[in-house]
Structures are given as structure tokens and as C-alpha cells.
Design brief:
Elements: H1 11-21, H2 32-39, H3 43-55, E1 59-63, E2 68-71, H4 73-80, H5 85-91
Antiparallel strand pairs: 1-2
Helix pairs in contact: 2-3
């Protein structure tokens, strides 16, 4: 079951987090462009949402110079349901 979205989140955020999580497989480390190709969202849209997800502490850079993103520890807790959506609202 997917965790509820915070009021500032959209389907783009859900898709980005789900792709990085990669189901039960090994987590992925991806660029905005690769995420865009695999989600059908435009690269600029993905980039904007990655920045917001980063501000919320849900994703982080694996390598900033190459724009590689991964889930953060907080992102893992959110996706597992161990971080209440209210915590994300409080940060907004």
C-alpha cells in the first residue's frame, strides 16, 4: 500500500519516489532525465519535483556533480509508512 500524499505532493512525486524505490528490487540512483524517460513526465517537471522532494528530505544526491538522486533515510521511512504525512505537512 502506498503512503498518503502530503498536500503539496502530486502524482509526479509518487512516480519519482516509486521509481527510485524500485519495488522489491535493488534501489535505483537516477538523474532527472532518466526518471523522465521512465515515467513519461518531462525532465524539467521531474527536476522541479526532485528539488521539492529534496527540500522535504525524501531524496538526496548520490552525486551532486552528476545530478544523481537516491532515496534518503527519511524517504525510506515515508515509503514504509513509518513517517506520518503530517510530518511532511509540518515541513512545508
Amino acid at each position: 500500500m502506498e503512503p498518503p500524499l502530503a498536500s503539496w505532493m502530486t502524482q509526479v512525486d509518487r512516480d519519482v519516489l516509486a521509481l527510485l524505490r524500485n519495488g522489491d528490487e535493488r534501489e535505483l540512483v537516477l538523474t532527472p532525465g532518466v526518471i523522465a524517460v521512465n515515467t513519461d513526465w518531462k525532465r524539467q517537471t521531474v527536476r522541479e519535483h526532485l528539488l521539492r522532494l529534496s527540500e522535504a528530505g525524501l531524496v538526496e544526491y548520490q552525486d551532486e556533480s552528476r545530478a544523481l538522486y537516491r532515496l534518503s533515510g527519511r524517504g525510506h521511512r515515508y515509503l514504509r509508512g513509518d513517517l506520518a504525512v503530517e510530518a511532511l505537512e509540518a515541513d512545508d
